[in-house]
Amino acid sequence: MSQYETILVEQRGPVTLITLNRPQALNALNAQVLADLLAALAAFDADDSQGCAVLTGSEKAFAAGADIKEMQAQGFAEMYGTNHFSGYETLTKTRKPIIAAVAGFALGGGCELAMMCDFILAADTAKFGQPEIKLAVAPGMGGSQRLTRAVGKAKAMEMVLTGRMMGAEEAERAGLVSRIVPAADLVEDAVKTATTIAGMAPLAVKANKEMVDAAFETGLSMGVQFERRLFHGLFGTADQKEGMAAFIEKRPGAWTGK
Ligand code: CO8
């Protein structure tokens, strides 16, 4: 029995599988989804037995956006005063990786939520879009920034100005998703990929994630320097000694996370 109202959380070995579960609203993101997700991800990040998370939705929808019914009556004072949905940024502070496994609609806040994850695996049924303009608003959870960084200005601008959706193949060509898998295999494939990541030395996983993320926050020379410092730092870990010894001795590494 899940302790959460709007998500299901399951541990598959070292992988935490989080499934958005508001089928009646195509997994639209309301305040309860945010609270549930943040609590589940904090528990995941703090649990040493867990190495990688998968965030998924249903076959029909990863998430069809922020909950329009919850937002419709809100005015500027409430939205600005409560810094509405800024809590989602906390998700990007999770130190262990999160894979978004997207089937069906990932629209508006749903697309933005997927883009906050470390990478997106797409089912062949996935459809991505930022249709907020059709509601006379705009992306508010980072879509204008992360989509532009992922697919470039021309495609991002066309998508936010027209609200058109992009299918899985176009998304892969554009660099928004890492791979496309058949819809029926999506969750298993994502869990398998997450299991591979969870099998790596934990400090190396955190460092690799952190340095790729730095590419979005800094210029090239500072980014390369940041990478090199983290690379040097990993030579202070027991797992580096073990990893290189294991290679030389032709055996798998046995990690201590130290
Ligand atoms: N919010 C609330 N309810 C929704 C949402 C949503 N985003 N999307 C779907 N639903 C509900 C529908 O109202 C419907 O409920 P009901 O059965 O009670 O009428 C149920 O889900 C099923 O939806 P449909 O009947 O519409 O299903 P279809 O298969 O016909 O259509 C679509 C599927 C195309 C996905 C369609 O539902 C749709 O266009 N949905 C809205 C997509 C959208 O506009 N998303 C952007 C929302 S705005 C946003 O995300 C802003 C993000 C930034 C917020 C940050 C603030 C700071």
Automatic annotation (TrEMBL):
Organism: Sphingomonas aliaeris
Family: Belongs to the enoyl-CoA hydratase/isomerase family.
Reaction it catalyzes: a 4-saturated-(3S)-3-hydroxyacyl-CoA = a (3E)-enoyl-CoA + H2O; a (3S)-3-hydroxyacyl-CoA = a (2E)-enoyl-CoA + H2O
Name this polypeptide is given: enoyl-CoA hydratase
Broad enzyme group: lyase
EC number: 4.2.1.17
GO molecular function, one term: enoyl-CoA hydratase activity
Keywords assigned: Fatty acid metabolism, Lipid metabolism, Lyase
PROSITE patterns in the record: ENOYL_COA_HYDRATASE
Signal peptide: none
TM segment ranges: none
Purpose of the protein: Could possibly oxidize fatty acids using specific components.
PANTHER family per UniProt: ENOYL-COA HYDRATASE, MITOCHONDRIAL, ENOYL-COA HYDRATASE-RELATED
One biological process term in Gene Ontology: fatty acid beta-oxidation
